[in-house]
Every structure is written in C-alpha cells, then in structure tokens.
Amino acid sequence: MENERSEASETREMIICRDVHKWFGDFHVLRGVNLTLTKGEVVVICGPSGSGKSTLIRTINRLEEHQKGDIIVDGIELTHDIRNVHAIRKEIGMVFQHFNLFPHLTALQNVTLAPVYVRRWSKDKAEEVARQLLQRVGIPEQADKFPGQLSGGQQQRVAIARALAMQPKIMFFDEPTSALDPEMIKEVLDVMIELAKGGMTMIVVTHEMGFAREVSNRIIFFDEGDIVEEAPPDRFFTECKEPRTMLFLSQILTT
Amino acid sequence: MTVDVEVMKPPRTEVGALGWLRKNLFGTWYDALLTVGSVAFICVVLYGVFNWALNTAKWGVVTTNIKVFMVGRYPYSEVWRIWTSVGLFLVMALVSLVVWKRNVTKARRGVTIAWVIVLLLTIVLLKGFGDLPLIPSVPINIWSGLMLTLALGIVGIVASFPMGVLLALGRRSSLPVIKVFCTTYIEGIRGVPLISVLFMSMLMIPLFLPPSIRLDNVLRAMVAMTLFSAAYVAENVRGGLQAIPEGQYEAGRAVGLNEGLVMVLIVLPQALRAMIPAIVGQFISLYKDTSLVVIVGLLDILGVAKAVTGQREWIGTQKEVFAFAGVIFFVTCSALSYASRRLEKQLGVGER
Ligand SMILES: Nc1ncnc2c1ncn2[C@@H]1O[C@H](COP(=O)(O)OP(=O)(O)OP(=O)(O)O)[C@@H](O)[C@H]1O
Ligand SMILES: [Mg+2]
User: Fold this and answer.
1) How far is CA A49 from CA A53, A91, A222, B238, in A?
2) How far apart are CA B328 and CA B306, in angstroms?
3) What is the 3-state secondary structure (H, E, C) of B336-351?
4) What is the per-residue burial (b if ≥16 Cβ within 10 Å, else e) of A52-70?
5) Which backbone phi and psi does B226 adopt, to 5 degrees?
6) How many helices (H) and strands (E) does chain B have?
7) Cβ-based contacts of B348 with chain A (< 8 Å)
8) Which of B103, B109, B255 to mutate to test the interface with A (most CBs of A within 10 A)?
9) Cα–Cα distance between B312 and A222 in angstroms, integer?
10) Domain range list for chain B
C-alpha cells in the first residue's frame, strides 16, 4: 500500500473505479462503472432519478458494498478489511442531500466530533479548527446553535464544515442543493465553488449546470447504472451525441 | 388617538379572572352544570377526607411506629448509617443539580464517578462488615420498611437501565445468537407477571449458584426486579432506536467513526433522550411494584403496614396506616417524575 502511494506522481489518481458492479437483490444498479479522478479534478455527475448516481458515490466510501470490480482511493484498495474502509472514509468527506447533521449537538460540536474521536485531536485544537471552518463557510456566528435552529442553507454549510474538519483529500456531494429553497442554493454553491477553486478533488452529483460550467473539469451523464458519456463542460452541452443525454439535457435546461 | 385606544381594549368580561371563569367554566349551560356539580362533589369528598384526617383518625399508630415504617428491623443503634446515606444522596443530588444547571461541562465526569462511588459506599455502609467495630454487619435479610422499598427501587432502576440498553442493542445485533437470545429473553420476561419472576428467583437462583454462595432473599428480589424491569427498558430503548433515521448512521460512518462510536456518540444519545418519559414511567411502575415482594415474605413499607395493623393494640387502624403509606408512595413517585421533567427540560427533549 505504502509503495503504491509513494510512486504517485503530480497527476496522481485519487479515485479509480474498475468495472464496478452492484446489485440490490436482483436489481443491477451499477453495471460495470469505470471512473478515474486525478488530484484536484472536479467531476459533476448528472442523470435521471434512479439511475444509480448516489449508489455510485456511496459505494466508493462503503456506505454501500459493491459485489464486483475494484475501487482504489488514493492508493488504498477498498476491501472487506475494516481498516481499509476506515482509511478510505478518512480520505473522503461526504455531504448529503438532507444534511444529516447530528441534531443533539451544536453546529460546533457537529464539526468537532470526528476530529476529537477519530483523529484524537485535543478539544481545544478541534474547536479552533472548527471555528475557522465555520468562518470559511460563512456562519461563524451560528457555532452554538443546534441544527434545528438553523436554515437549510446554514445546515448544509455546517455539514460541509463537518466533512472538511477531517481534512479529507476528496469531497463527495450528493445533490447538496436539491433540498434547499431557491434563495439558499447560492450560498451553498458559493462554498463549493470556493472549495473547487482551492484545488479539492470533488465528485458532485447535481443538476446545477451553472456550477458545472463554472468549476467542473468533466461532466458525466449517468443512466441505467453506467456512464453514458462524459465531456468537459464547454463541450458537453454542444457536442453530446447520445439521444438519452440530449433528452435529459433538454429536460433540465428548460425547467 | 385616546378614543381609539379606548375602543381597542377588550371587553371587560373577556379578560382577567372573570373572563377566564366565563370562558372555561361557564361557557354553556352544560358547562355550568358540570362545573357546579364537580365543585359540589369535590367539596363533599374533601370535607370527608379532612374531617376524617383531622378529627376521627388516630395518628398514634403512625407516630408510635414511625421508625418501624422507615427502617423496619434495622437495629436502632445503627440507624445513623441510614441517615448518613440519605445525607450523602442529598448532597450528591444538590451537587449534580448545580453542576448541570451551571453547565460546568468539566465537572460532569467527576460527578458521575462520584455517584458510582456514593452508591457503592452506601451499600457498604448499610450492610456493614462482619467484625468491623464501627459498622458491624447488618444482614440484608432484615432490611424492611421504606428503606427496603427504596433499596429495591434504586437498585432495580440503576441496574436495569444499562442492562436494558444492552438488551435493546443485542436485539438489533446482526449476530444471530445474540439477537435470538435477547429477543427470547425480552419476550419471555414480558410474557410473565412480575410475581412469577419473583417466585422463580426465590426458588431458582439457588439452583444456579454453587452451594457455597447463598444470596439473601432481599438480593434475590433485587435480581428479580432488575431482570424484569430490564426487559421493559429494552423495549423502550428499542422504540427510541427505531426512530433514528438511517442517515444518522451514514453521516457518522462517513466522518470516519466506527460502528461502536456511531452508536455511543450519535444514536444512543438521541434514542435515550427521546425515550426519557417512557423509561421514567417504567421506573415509576417498577418502584411501585416493589410492594409485590410481600408475596415472597419480605416486608417493604406496605408489608410493615400490614404487620403493624395486625398487632392487637393497633387493630382498626388500617385506614390511617395505609393512608400514610399511600402518601409516602405519592411523595416519592412525584419526586421521580419531577426529576424526569427536569431532565427532559435540561436535555431539551422535543425541542431539537
Ligand atoms: N437500499 C436499497 N435497496 C434496494 N434498492 C435500492 C436501495 N437504494 C437504492 N435503490 C435503488 O437503486 C436505484 C438507484 O438509486 P440511487 O439512489 O443511486 O439513484 P439516484 O441516481 O441517486 O437517483 P436520485 O436522482 O433520485 O437521487 C433506484 O432504482 C433505487 O430504487
Ligand atoms: Mg440520489
């Protein structure tokens, strides 16, 4: 494992998915996905509901288990070894559609929990870092409020700070703005744009094409458990060939 | 302007005591009828009770036997040990209240440890040791009266809580052996009345233990109450666990916590918090059920009451004695539910 890491070069591969398959019972959700992300790359995944976008990113940090194929994150292979699973989870920060903040803890405690118990930082250090992060996502004054007392946009920003607190090398966003009221979407996207420009490796499942245009390196159209086509944003909207992609684009771009 | 303000004032009959009366008690003719009827009924009952309590009742039986009610057959020369224990508990309760109220986070762990120490200390103090000069052994077998009631209640509550949590977690375990064992245990216990568990523990515990260890009857009763209550606590906790959405587990795992930490730091605090009212309700009913130990020959406060009224000089004093016992239960149970409400408020149940 260590050798593999040390031979990594400047454009090293942060995520490699090779022929990844997953079934829910008899239902074939992921059908041989191949995906590679290099360091600092920002990839936007879009596609119809139920196509398996969430399942794909949840598989990479083992919230779901895949049955066939290889997943390698920053040189660590995802196996049944629980140590590898934990090592990979430490590398990846995850932001959910419905925030999933811990409602019994304050915003600050939500952010400090994992650093204190997983990274074993002292409480003071964790709090200092947490306050900086809350500052960075623009809500330093909400530190001592509980999630139930925050707006959706504020909650999602706490969730981003919570994920960043573990100092991950990769961030996953699963439809981070689709549970938000329109006026709150921008404040969350701004944080994500700042992150992307700061060089974070990111996979973002979203239909926010403005965000995709502004910061993504690649847009992936995903349907029926596999990547249908992918292209850099400047070409994606004009040069896609598949009728499924065009149909999908016509639907989300008109609404 | 002034005229406007005058106009805006609500009609006199809508506000104040009069308005309240009108709205809530005499809203319609049948409301009025109900109000008058109930007031009359309450007056009659209250008059009867007070008349009896103040004029007819002979409280001598209570005042004369107060020590028996409180500590039963505990040697009177050793009663200071009970007072010391009660004092320790009160001091601890006060300290906890201050620490939690002031939110002195750092002191909380200390206070929790102190509680454990005080509990153990109390047991040692009350039971004593064979030939220690200061605290000679008092056989647990002769514990009786309110002291026994409280001891059974406190031990039952303190021991059945962690056991219930473990059972609830076991019931959701992915290991079939543990799951089947916990489910069978919980359903088995819930399927039989407490009395039969009490009898079983009197008869069966000696069979399981090596002959050299002999458990006192009181200890066996404590074991029985704990085993019984734990099954109900487990069901309450399970209800709380079910209410926690899968997203909470996922968020915990995603930030790198292992399954144990996810449970301890994220799931259990929310589940227990939501279930405080139900669990405290279970504890109150456990506390009241301690009076069933009379059946297996122990004298809790009701047992003592019965024994006292059976003595020749106190014949015909049942009313006084049982009224007294009822008041004692009422006061202690109210204290429990008050503590529960305080706890709920402190933890913000239903707010977050
Ligand atoms: N735990 C599960 N058990 C069984 N089927 C599941 C499970 N989770 C998801 N599925 C199914 O797998 C398919 C893919 O789900 P997934 O959530 O990955 O879709 P998605 O592309 O993220 O859709 P959306 O845009 O609606 O979020 C769906 O048909 C869904 O019903
Ligand atoms: Mg999804």
Assistant:
1) 8, 28, 10, 34
2) 15
3) HHHHHHHHHHHHCCCC
4) bbbbbbbbbbbbbebeebe
5) -65, -50
6) 16, 0
7) 146
8) B255
9) 91
10) 139-347
Cβ-defined contact of A101 to B352 (cutoff 8 Å) = no
- Within 10 A of B32 (CB to CB), how many other CB atoms are there? 12
CA of B49 to the centre of ligand 1 (A): 67
Tell me how far apart the 2 most distant CA atoms of chain A are, in Å: 55
Count CB atoms within 10 A of the CB of residue B25. Answer: 14
Give the β-pairing of A68-73 and A226-231.
Answer: unpaired
Integer Cα distance of B352 and B349 in angstroms: 7
Count the Cβ atoms, other than its own, within 10 Å of residue A232: 11
Residues 6+ apart with CB under 8 A from A48: A223, A248
**Mean pLDDT value across residues A144-171:** 96
Topology of the domain covering B139-347: MetI-like fold (1.10.3720)
Token representation of residue B252: 């915990």
Residue of A nearest to B258 (CA): A86
Answer for the pair A146, A103: CB distance below 8 angstroms, yes or no. Answer: yes
3-state secondary structure of B299: coil
User: What's the gap in Å between the CA of A166 and the closest CA on chain B?
Assistant: 7
Tokens for B237, please give them: 């906790």
Q: What is the DSSP letter of A176?
A: T
Q: Are A117 and A170 in contact, with CB atoms under 8 Å apart?
A: no
pLDDT of amino acid A10: 52
pLDDT reported for residue B12: 62
ipTM of the complex: 0.92
∠ CA B162-B166-B168 to the nearest 5 degrees?
115
Q: Is the pLDDT of residue B68 over 70?
A: yes
pTM over 0.80: yes
- Which residue in chain A is spatially nearest to B271 when comparing CA positions? A104
For residue B165, give how far its alpha carbon lies from the nearest alpha carbon of chain A (Å). Answer: 19
